[in-house]
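Project standup — Tuesday

K.O.: blocked on the structure for the chain from last sprint. Re-posting the sequence here as requested.
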Amino acid sequence: MFDSLAQRFTRLFAGLGRSKLTPANIEDGVREVRTALLEADVGLDVVRGFVERVKEKAVGLTRLDGVAPADQFVKVVHDELVALLGGEETRIRWNDRGPTVFMMVGLQGTGKTTTCGKLALHLRRKEGKKPLLVAADVKRPAAIEQLKVIGRQVDVPVYAEEGGRPEKICARGVAKAIETGRDVVILDTAGRLHIDAELMDELEDVKGKTNPHEIWLVVDAQVGQDAVASAREFDRRLAVTGVVLSKTDGDARAGAALSIREVTGKPIRYVGTGEKLEQIEPFVPKRVAGRILGMGDVVGLVEKAQEVVDEASARETAEKMFRDAWTLDDFRLQLRQVREMSSKLGGLGGMLKHMPGMADLPEEVTGRMDDGQLVRWEAAIESMTPKERTDPVVLDGQRRARVARGSGTSVASVNELLKAFKLMRKQVKELKSKGILGRLAGRRMDKQKLKQIEDLKRRGIDLRNWFPES
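H.V.: unblocked you, prediction finished:
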């Protein structure tokens, strides 16, 4: 959602050059910021206030010598962008005397039911909660069945009734959660194609019967400023406590995300980043601002890596690297982990854009970075014999042709695989020779250091080769 805005800001900061900030280039920078935000469909009043605050703070930086203007200016824009997006991350108000009730509201077609399932899965996996989904949309055809299907997919029970009034269904759903020991209740309420009195009366009845701790509005990010208008109206009638942006992986222009907090005062809590049920993440203003301004989101990247990388296998792989015993079997495991992580971040191109300085990657570059390459390499490794995977040196031209045929790839693809493996091995040796990997290994062994050292000695491993700096 933020790609075009991020590319615009990256070019803006590069254009400021290395000279001292002056009122002239500050004015140029502010003008570019204004244009970028307006093109991103941010509301005019929001843009006007934002650029005035940036200009006021940037002018005060003209006295600083020896600091690149881009670095000064980006700091000002970053701080104001974080404030615009909501400042510090807003925490969920957990109920310590019973289940925490989430009331999910929104217009029809915003992805509310799917978002309920995503939230349930996230809270179960990340927060260790035991959610219960409540099907309270009795108007939309197949809405109840849709939630039941999603519930089975995320392994979360669903409370549903055929017919009845939504407020009573929700009240009985909360009672069921208390009876069965569930600590989270997610109410999937009805929506309409537009805001009307009947919808709001129904939602107010549900709120009155269940006293929810959180009322979250699900907003389609692709709607733009219409989303801001609906957020204002829902808040007026229900006093919403937060917003969830759905469909942010589409061709949206970011205007809703940058305007909602400023206009309504309500924080964005989560964003849906894709169609898969696990593709939802907390909205952290500092991280989002960093991604928009080309600073990357290394913390987010590490979190995704922790989801797919097993610590024990990572330690075993590191040890093999230290002993020069790293094989193509180990490389295949790493390829699979990278592919799993990239799928959570929108592919390899999306993963790269979480890294600092990568926001301005052109589409023709990121478009070629697909997981197909990793799949082909995995297939090639699986087509090799155990000896070939252990000692790739034996892979002559005839063997490579056989591997290509067996894996349904090409000899060129097999050659690329072996070249990448050889290059990685070379880089590992360089880090090892500098003692960098030794220091990393030392930190890894802090908890059971003595036991591991004794184990290594029994296996005949000379620790001086691991820690040349000592």
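K.O.: great, moving the ticket to review. The chain has 23 helices and eight strands. The radius of gyration is 27 Å.
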